What does this fold into?
Amino acid sequence: AVDVVFLSFDDIRENGVPADVDVIINAGDAGTAFSGGEEWLDETLVTAIRKWVYEGGGFIGVGEPTAVHHGGRFFQLADILGVDKELGYTLSTDKYFTKALDSHFITKDRTACCEFGEVKHDIYALSADTEIIEYSNNEVHMAANTYGKGRGVYIAGLPYSYVNTRILLRSMYYAAAREGDMKKWYADNIYCEVHAYPETGKYAVVNNSSKTQVSTVYDGQGNGTGMELKPCEIRWF
It folds into this structure.
């Protein structure tokens, strides 16, 4: 449901974040090319992203994003994400912020808890301003944070599943501060999705499951219609 581009660290260093990008996702384990490793020691890189988020951009980190131990932080953009990982250097510091919110936009319509997979451990909230969305086993697994005019979202793990696909979509709309735009070309049932082709004046509603599904489907104007879809059905409008 979104357009995806891949940006290298050099792209951002040389040209900044493109104007048509709403959300940046950095996902992976520490020390890997996916997360970035020592690339995050570059002040030009982290300054460019901080400025972009502060002015209204969205940043989503999954696993160990922006991870490299430096300057008293493990997540170099912990100030955006609102969380960091305990490495043993700050064990003398009490982690007071542990209460999760009763509800949040990102998880509002989920039918089951987000599946974190090989969850990252020892993640803690930096301050009372961090919105803790999921907290268990004495650690944060999902959180959101306001940074200037922008927002950061942290998720401890996100293996593929129907539930996680919806969690990621809602995370992107939240990080971009465009929650009101989500229910356009949208199905509220996580097993269904809408494919719109505005240039042809048509759209398709797809049931991705092998079971009958009932969903409210929203058109490009945000008008909702209830419908029942047979297993694996594609219905054109």
Observations:
- The first helix runs from residue 9 to 15.
- The radius of gyration is 19 Å.
- The first strand starts at residue 23 and ends at 28.
